[in-house]
Amino acid sequence: MATRWGVIGTSNISHDFAVAMSTLPRTEHLIIAVASKDKARSQEFAEQFEIPKAYDSYSLVATDTEVDVVYVGTLNEHHYSVSRLMLEHGKNVLCEEPFCQNTEQVQQLVELARSKNLFIMEAMWMFFTPAFTILREEINKGTIGEPLQIISSFGTPMSESLIQQRNSGGSILELAVFSVYMSQFLFGPEKPQIYGACGQLTESGFDKDASVILKYSNGRISTFLSHFKVDLPNEAIVFGTKGNIKLYDPFWSATKMSVNGTDINIDVPPTKKATRYGNSVQLIYEIQEVRNCLLKGLNESSIVPWSLSIENAILVEDIRKKLGVTICK
Description:
alpha/beta, 14 strands, 35% helix
């Protein structure tokens, strides 16, 4: 029987989520409902992806008895409230990254899911991609020796007016979250020392760029940049005592990487519709993980467990405080 999905929000990432799902067998995955606060947008989205139900209220998805699991693709500031609404009505949840605006919200969602015996996962799709699978395997084999240094970046230009209009988020929460997760993926669960963090804030107090150095034990360091004003390389390199692994732009969904100088090209499934973010058809891998977990009766993924989301939320919050950002409650 197919896993029946509801989609909350008609954002660009929700669009790509639906495009990715359309490449999977309909006997395994079906989007049966979509909701937006704008009925016209939900109807347009439903028509585009042949979704039978278009709602103008999130609560209608929460109370739809045919929906097994909900994908939350709203603006970041609504992730917590929408995910909580779904859990309270007995829905399993895949919530787009970043999970929430602060650590307390992440912890509350995890405890609510635990108390109701429901599945919830932060959609850190980077971890499910073939490139990260190869990265994990090569490091475990000792191909590059002991990993000691990570250098990564994510920068995408935005107009100053758009940057100043933001009333939540910031470059760390929205862009560098991939670098933070990569750091903890390789060097965690140890909590690092924030050895350095600097950046500029918007008029409303959110970071529009950041340069961060995380210092772990045994000489391990992660250095990363995030920026809303300039286009950065958007690559990641892991340096070890015997070599290095490079993930090319965009490193969080790379289709090209190199291991000790040898290039590896990764094929991705073709799509009938264009995606709006680079290589985001690779969202299929986290979609498949959700179904596998539900079929096994699991409440959390072993690849992105609740503990990882909590430890990363704590670290992201500490970095933002170091930059002078006021954390939203």
